[in-house]
Amino acid sequence: GVILQDYQYINKGFAGDKVGKTSSLRFGMDYNDALNSLLSLFSISRSYNSDPYMRSQAFIGNYILLASVTQRANGNSLHMNWFLSKGLNFLNGIFYLNAIYTNNKSKMLQDEILMPYRSNTLSINGSLGFNIGAFIRINNIVSYRYNGMKIIPMDSKSSANNWMYKFTFTVPIKAWEIDFKDEYYHNEITAGKYKDFFLSDVEATYRTKRLEYSLSFTNIFNKKDYSYSIPGDLMFNSYESKIRNRQILFSLYFKI
User: Fold this and answer.
1) What letter does residue 210 receive in the DSSP assignment?
2) What is the pTM of this model?
């Protein structure tokens, strides 16, 4: 089973003037082929840090007290970044892919007990945009994010996978322009349990030399809330945001 509880945070101030130290090593490799509209960028870095203050958190009733204590905290991190873009002449479009991986090893105090932990994040974003004919524009964006955490003394692991797909379709018809926007989210709320969220908007715009009329219809399916989870700082955190209700908005712009 899963026990869920809401907490409020309290930040405790701390006065200190000691300075931490960070050292890092970075390697990068770039490739650019302008004739074939191809670009690739890759980098990897390793960092080591030493901080004279250690973060701490303590559970007090329905509150979490966040503070810093005078205790040295050493950690290290690995960061990798790869970016690729390719022009697609036959589609009059462009494709890009960006992958970022981060692995951090750190420590903090949990109810005055030292807790070393390791966290890692993988983020992959891809986009394909192209034109149909001379005017119609289509763009597709796919995003995946993985967050994982391991509390070393307890050999406790937690993770969350989140997916997102965004689609935009723009159709100009003489002085008119119609935009369709769809977003789909597939988020892991607890281990193996996912929640889907679909958001759809449409907007029609009419332009003259000095006036622009716009009529938009947002949140067509009248979704109420959006949820996702991220493990971090020795806890598995779940978030929920309320979504504005379905609405119709008319706008008028005047150009001087």
Assistant:
1) S
2) 0.86
